[in-house]
């Protein structure tokens, strides 16, 4: 259940700055909690999300935004919101957790995300990429 994951990470401290992130994000590759889109963990000109993507995934990263259940992808200088692997009982996303319905891991969506990760096919499949300018 997503509620358990949310409760575990929602008020957890970042390992780099020891602050509780406003928008905690979980790296789906290594499991590290990062301060995404915050300047507290800057490394040179890069925010922590971009820096961690270079360190952990050679420029590619998958983050689960804990406060919204959305997967954020970083691939080189581009980023996009992928959607969610957590769905309600009717198979619908609850972006930004506004409806308050219980969410469960959707194995099918998780397999799709995993396949895109393994084949590096994100750029071909997702159409709404933005240039992040190292600010993620």
From TrEMBL:
GO molecular function annotation: ubiquitin protein ligase activity; zinc ion binding
An individual GO BP term: ubiquitin-dependent protein catabolic process via the N-end rule pathway
Record Pfam families: PRT6_C
All copies of domain E3 ubiquitin-protein ligase UBR-like C-terminal, residue ranges: 2-119
Keyword flag Transferase: yes
Transmembrane segments: none
Record's catalysed reaction(s): S-ubiquitinyl-[E2 ubiquitin-conjugating enzyme]-L-cysteine + [acceptor protein]-L-lysine = [E2 ubiquitin-conjugating enzyme]-L-cysteine + N(6)-ubiquitinyl-[acceptor protein]-L-lysine
Gene Ontology, cellular component aspect: cytoplasm; ubiquitin ligase complex
Annotated keywords: Metal-binding, Transferase, Ubl conjugation pathway, Zinc, Zinc-finger
Superkingdom assignment: Eukaryota
Purpose: Ubiquitin ligase protein which is a component of the N-end rule pathway. Recognizes and binds to proteins bearing specific N-terminal residues that are destabilizing according to the N-end rule, leading to their ubiquitination and subsequent degradation.
Similarity section: Belongs to the E3 ubiquitin-protein ligase UBR1-like family.
Protein name (record): E3 ubiquitin-protein ligase
């Amino acid at each position: 259940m997503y509620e358990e994951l949310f409760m575990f990470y929602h008020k957890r401290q970042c390992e780099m700055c020891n602050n509780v992130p406003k928008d905690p994000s979980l790296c789906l590759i290594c499991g590290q909690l990062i301060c995404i889109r915050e300047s507290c963990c800057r490394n040179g000109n890069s925010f922590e999300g971009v820096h961690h993507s270079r360190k952990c995934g050679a420029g590619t990263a998958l983050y689960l935004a804990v406060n919204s259940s959305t997967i954020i992808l970083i691939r080189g200088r581009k980023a996009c919101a992928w959607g969610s692997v957590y769905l309600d009982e009717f198979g619908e996303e609850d972006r930004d957790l506004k409806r308050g319905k219980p969410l469960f891991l959707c194995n099918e969506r998780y397999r799709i995300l995993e396949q895109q990760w393994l084949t590096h096919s994100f750029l071909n499949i997702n159409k709404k990429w933005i240039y992040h300018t190292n600010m993620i």
